[in-house]
Write a structure and sequence with these properties.
Length: 262
Amino acid sequence: MKQITSVQNPFIKSLVQLQEKAKVRKQTGTFLIEGKREIELALKGGYELETILFLPEIISEKQLNDLTTKPLNVIEISKEVYQKLAYRDTTEGILAIAKTKSLALSDLKLSKNPLILVGESLEKPGNVGAILRTADAANIDAVIIANPKSDLYNPNIVRSSVGCLFTRQIAIGTTEEVIAYLKSNNINIYSATLQDSTEYHTQNYTIPTALVVGTEATGLSEKWRTESTKNIIIPMQGEIDSMNVSVAAAILLFEAKRQRGF
């Protein structure tokens, strides 16, 4: 088995670049996953692993073999190397290099009565990760990111989603492309916005539905407001007029799930 003990190793340096630069992830078609649970979810979600790196003081070869029956390129690394690559202090001593997937709208496979969450121009990786966790909890058909501001394989998104990046179908596109996709599939669009809106709980989400949320700072673009089936609002009873986008998404999704009988 190959061993790497130096952080100056060229391969390790290339993995640092993979962590830090979206351009490198795009060029190589790969990204890093950290943690046993996250790797297990990636495998379950059909992601292909290229290489496993592990710290023998924390995880055994037997535990590695239990991950998958497929043969993998496995590299033993030192604690120094692991700490160089790992984002978290408490992961289980394992990282994987995985191949990215296509995120095209045309690749989505929807149910007969889909429930979709759309997020437009989401900037903070933590919010994207939280939205993916909510989407997994609600077991919806897909998450679509319109006008993405960051690479979905950004390590902060992988980390904050706690592996839920791999458990839902995800696609990206421009706002115009996403609207066209939803309309071509006869999916009703409910845009969460302050303007020309009605309270969210008055609408029927038992039909094919896309719930659309934007950033707290700027909200949704005009295109969503004019092209939606209905604009909706969560009644605010305090002093402010907005809430965290991941919280808003959770409220809307679980109202839809409630109407659908969970």
